[in-house]
Amino acid sequence: MAEAMRRAPTLSGPCWIVAHEQTAGRGRRGRAWTAGQGNLAATLVMQPEGTAAQAALRSFVAALALHEALAQVLGTDAPLSLKWPNDVLLNGGKVAGILLESTGTGQGVSHLAVGIGVNLRAAPPADAVEPRALRPVALAAETGLEIAPEAFLTHLAHAFDGQERRFATCGFGPVRAAWLDRATRLGEVITARTAREETTGTFETVDEDGNLVLRTARGRVAIPAADVYF
Fold it and tell me: Which candidate, 29, 118, 200, 212, has a CA 20 to 30 Å from the CA of 193?
């Protein structure tokens, strides 16, 4: 992500950057992120049109692209699902995560970095994640498939291009519908935790702005950003 932002002003178009090793990986809310060798640590840096809110919807584009790429290498019947806001699950465990960072002024975005980490070869130990978080899993251990980061990136880049074209042409509606078709725990009771509070309710939908919508005892609640627990 840091290298993407360093290079961003010199790039004339979208560019993927891959790290074979990270020594200062980070996740959402500044958490530490471990990416061992043989895993994918990649960032797509781009210059999106539109507002910062529209740029943020690329997390759903990225999730669909990851789901598509994983289904290509594992088969369409692979037990994959998407967890709001930024995770991809395999056999119910977290196999991939997404992190978006941007630069710009006002409501605009000059550069957007879409960071993607996929546990291809190895996953962090369970005690390396915070309490209540989903167990980390790796492609190799869960399925027996071994694939090099560069080979997987070929699938991912192609899938992202297709999903991005659909988003640019048709807007968020089809992306939202496709994401919901792959969502885990839809219709079930989940908990969303922000820095200030926890909200528990039935996962009803994701709205047109990408907010998580829960049906609670006090009515429908739309949550723009949170950590989700089952």
Answer: 118
Residue corresponding to tokens 């200030």: 196
DSSP letters spanning 105-127? STTB-SEEEEEEEE-SS----GG
User: 122-126, 187-191, 226-230: which has the minimum mean pLDDT?
Assistant: 122-126
Domain covering 189-229, topology:
SH3 type barrels. (2.30.30)
Secondary structure class of 50 (helix, strand, coil): coil
CA angle 80, 224, 1 (to 5 degrees): 65
Interhelix angle 58-74/172-181, rounded to 10 degrees, is: 50
How far apart CA 84 and CA 122 sit, in angstroms, is: 23
Q: Which CATH class for the 2-181 domain? A: alpha beta
Position 3 scores a pLDDT of: 92
Predicted local distance difference test score (pLDDT) of residue 102: 93
Spatial separation of the C-alpha atoms in residues 145 and 75, rounded to whole Å: 11
